[in-house]
Amino acid sequence: MRFKISLQNRARHTDLVACVGWMTPDELYSCGDDHQLLRWSLLNGETSKVADLPPELFPLEMHWMPRSAISAGAKSQADTIFLLTAADGKFYLINRKGRIEKTVEAHQGAVLTGRWSHDGSSILTGGEDGQVKVWSRSGMLRSTLCQSSGPVYSAAWAPDSDAVLYTAGTSLIVKPLAPNTKPIQWKAHDAIILKVAWNPNSGLIVSGSEDTRYRVWDRYGRQLYSSAQHHHPITGLAWAPDGQLFAVGSYNTLRLCDKAGWCHSLDKPSSGSLYNLAWSSDGTQVAGAGGNGQVLFAHVIETHLEWRNYEATVISRTSIALRNVNNDAKEQLELRDRIIKVSLSHGHLIVVTASQVYVYSTR
C-alpha cells in the first residue's frame, strides 16, 4: 500500500500552516501564521475562508471535539467545536463558523499541545512552562498533573482516558489520573521528543524525535520497533483510527507505516516541514500542515488482498482491480463513492464505501 499525494498548484495560506483537523471525512479545516481559518471540501474541491483569527493568535495544534460527544439535540453540526492551542499561553474553543466561543488562560508561555479526551468530557494541555493540565469540556481547570523541567511538546490520552502520556525531554511519561498512582517513565530517544501519539484501538504508542527516529512502544514502555535514522527531525505523527497504520512527517517527507513500524511508502512532497498530521475518521486519508503554506492531502491506495486464487487491489479512491491468478482473468470495479474498507475471503468480496456496502461473489 502507499499514499497518493495531492498538493495545490498555489498555496492557499500565505505563511506557515501550523495545524489541520478533519470535521468530517470530506471536510478539513486548517490555520497557520497568516491567521486565516480555511475550510477544504473534498466533495467539490473548493477552498474557502471561514474567518480571520485575531492577529495576536498564532495557532499550534487543532483537535475537533469527538463526534460521539456532540449532544443528540445538536442541530446537524452547528454545535461542533474544535480546540485550538496557541503561542500566547491560551487555548480557544472555536465553532465551525470560526467564532471563538471561549478563551482560557492556560499556561505561562505557549500551549504546545491540546487534545480532547475520547469521550469529549475533558481537555488535556501541555505547555512551554512544563506543566500538563486537565480541564473540563467548558474550560474549567480540574488538575495540574505534573511540573516538568522543560517544555511539554506533545501529549495524548490513554485508550480509556484513565491516564495521559506526555513528553519530557528525551523521556516519555505515562501518568495515571487516579491519585497516588505511580507514573511509568522511560528514556525513549537520544534527543528531544517532539511528537507522540497513542492509538485508542491498538493501545500502541508511537514517538518521534529530533534524533530523526520514530519508535513504537506498548503502554509499559517496551520498545516494539525503532526506525533507522532519517535526514530530518520527526515533526508530525498520527495513527489511523483503527490502529493498523500510522503516518510520519518531517521536512519534505511523508511515510506510511504499519502498526509494527515497517514503512510501506516514502514520499517527498514539496511541503516544507510537516508540523501536524491528521487522519480522517474513516481512516482513508491524511492531511498535513506544511511549513511553506501548503496543505497536503494523502489518500491510502494499493491496499492488496489475496484469497486462494483471487487478488483484489484498491487502485484509486473509487476503483478496485480484481484478478484470478489461475486464468489471469481481470476485472475492474468502479464505485460511486470513496472506498473505506475491503475484505476478501470465503468466496466473497465485501466493499464498504462512504454510503453503501457491496457484497460480491468471487464467481
TrEMBL record:
Gene3D superfamilies: YVTN repeat-like/Quinoprotein amine dehydrogenase (2.130.10.10). WD repeats lie at residues 104-136, 186-218. The keyword NAD does not apply. It comes from the Eukaryota. Residues 302-362 form the IFT80 second beta-propeller domain. Pfam families: Beta-prop_IFT80_2nd (PF23335), WD40 (PF00400). One of its GO terms (biological process) is cilium assembly. GO terms for cellular component: cilium; intraciliary transport particle B. Keywords: Cell projection, Cilium, Flagellum, WD repeat. This is Intraflagellar transport protein 80 homolog. It comes from Hirondellea gigas.
